Amino acid sequence: MKHWTLLSILLVGCSSAAHQVAAEPSDAPPQIDDVAVQDSGPRQGERTDGGQVQDGDLQNDSSNAFIDGGGSEEQAPSGPPVVATDITISEIALFQGVKVPLMKNGAAVKSTYAPVVAGRPGLLRVYVKPSPSFRQRELTAELVLTNLSGTSIRQVKMIVTKSTLESELDSSMNFTIAAEDLPQGSSLFKVRLLGAPYVGTEPPAQYPADTSNAVLETAGSGKLRVVLVPVRYDADGSGRLPDTSASTVEQYRTAFFEAYPVTGVDVTVRSAMPWSGTISADKTGWNEVLQQVAALRAQDNPSSDTYYMGIFSPAGSFSTYCASGCVAGLAPLLTSASDVNYRAGVAIGYSNDAYALAASLRAAVHEAGHLHGRSHVGNAGTNPRCGTPSTIDAAFPYGGDGSIGSWGYGILGKQLYDPSMYTDFMGYCSDNWISDYTYGALLTRVQSVVPLTKSISLRGGEYRFVQISAEGNLRWGPTVDLPSVPTNNPTTVRATGSNGQIRNITGYYYSYGDDEGASMLVRKSDVNGMGLEIDYRGITRSLGAQ
20 to 30 Å CA-CA from 417: which of 23, 215, 467, 469? Predict the structure, then answer.
């Protein structure tokens, strides 16, 4: 069943007398029957993004002066507000992490990559463009939002002095959109700019131009569930644990929620996993600890849409660990959305200072991207400061520098992200955000993953991990009892016996998003007392029986 929502935005200008609520203009949208009207918007005096003031109900306003283009004061004409003809609405866009354009230059726009996500908060920007004859004055934007919960009315006032600039939040009329304002399905919206009755030469400032309602489609999503696994680092005798205090866990939750197109993020902390193996900055030990975290996940058997992220501190500080460059995380590139068995990654976990914490959060968000099927973007050929990532996504549309391509916005931090300065977090650059391309691809995976929580019933049984180093060396990994049969990249490999017997079996191949080797899962019963031959990068690699 589709939920229809009516969304109307009005820009109301102040007249010279005390501001009164005018009768509804003749071209106002028709009343909706059987819908209770309630004021659920912010109250007068509350500030919203861009330094604007939002009101709840319409309020009287004794302001009676405005500044014209030359900066002088003069009286505004008297009379009720009308549809302005000295200013136009140049664009309307919704930001939920990335910019999703809804209208530009009077025409409906559909984003190439990223849809509006139902149940996710955001910021609605109304871009204005004054004509040469425009008189600078305070305008009031009124948003009327109607859904199955009722109708809410809210307002934003702003002195309009210039055309909206993408880089300046306070140059657009902005509405904070709550998660409940965007139910899944189709919505309707309408925007009009109302002001004092100046005579202009532009068409009436309204969208759609014929006073009908535009359609806003929303796409369903779900929650992201992450379990942080603190790894106790015993290799140097320190027993060092990463910081998993409430404030640090909240930083992880914030980082995931701002970057991923989800309705919420649950971050919990598991009991610590001891680890006596060495983990070094040059990738030693990373494959092994990753497989152990994956084995721990299989043992815990959480809901299938839960991702495990092992975090650890192999040295006393991040600056010591990464003094000459370092591996910061590792995860398999999960190309199959239905394979629930290897939803695990590992990343550094430092919080000694702001830079160390930012690097740790960035690593976790990046590795979770691989777990959602995302390859790398960007390469050293066009952006040397971004390193040389492997497994590049050839379909990435914004070039080799890994740029986010379009404007981004942090719905919690309330910060704009300029595509000329920021790169996609699936690259190796430090100044990163998320592109609309990656955002849309992540949403597709989230939509595929969430329904699987109720559809998986066939147990996988016992499987054996095989570790494949970056150099192609093979090593047996832990045995895991999987909740379901693997599906990721089924590959024919050969089980070999001591008597020369060779038998083809199926292995499930997991390349790493970073060029640190790979993993394979083979059914334990297929390799009992047998060796293994795997073709890796064009060369046959052998592993003895165990």
Answer: 215
Tens digit of each residue's pLDDT (9 = 90 or more) over 491-530 = 999 999 988 889 999 999 998 866 678 999 999 999 999 9
Mean pLDDT of 71-75: 35
Q: What is the pLDDT of residues 97-142, one digit of tens each?
A: 999 999 999 999 988 899 999 999 999 999 999 998 888 888 877 7
Residue 216, CA distances (Å) to 27, 145, 175, 262, 388 in order: 21, 12, 16, 18, 40
CB count within 10 Å of CB 56 equals 17
- What is the overall mean pLDDT for the chain? 82
- Residues in the chain, total: 546
Encoded tokens for 15: 């007249």
C-alpha to C-alpha distance for 80 and 318, rounded to whole angstroms: 63
Nearest to 521 by CA among 545, 470, 498, 487: 487
pLDDT band at 383 (very low <50, low <70, confident <90, very high): low
CB atoms within 10 A of CB 450: 19
Distances (CA, A) of 130 to 79, 146, 158, 477: 21, 29, 14, 66
Alpha carbons 528 and 76: distance in angstroms, whole number: 88
Q: What is the rounded distance in angstroms from the CA atom of residue 249 to the CA atom of residue 260? A: 17
Please say whether the dihedral angle defined by the alpha carbons of residues 499, 504, 505 and 506, taken in this order, is positive or negative: positive
Q: Distance (Å, rounded) from C-alpha 27 to C-alpha 83?
A: 9
Q: Which of 71, 73, 41, 66 is nearest to 56 (CA)?
A: 41
Instruction: State the pLDDT at residue 151.
Output: 72
| Residue 531: Cβ-neighbour burial (10 angstroms; 0-12, 13-18, 19+) | middle
pLDDT in tens, 241-262: 999 999 999 999 999 999 999 9
Whether 142 and 153 have beta carbons less than 8 Å apart is answered as yes
Compute the distance between CA of residue 478 and CA of residue 404 in angstroms, rounded to an integer.
39
Task: Report which residue type is found at 105.
Answer: N
For residues 159 and 207, what is the distance between their CA atoms, to the nearest angstrom?
21
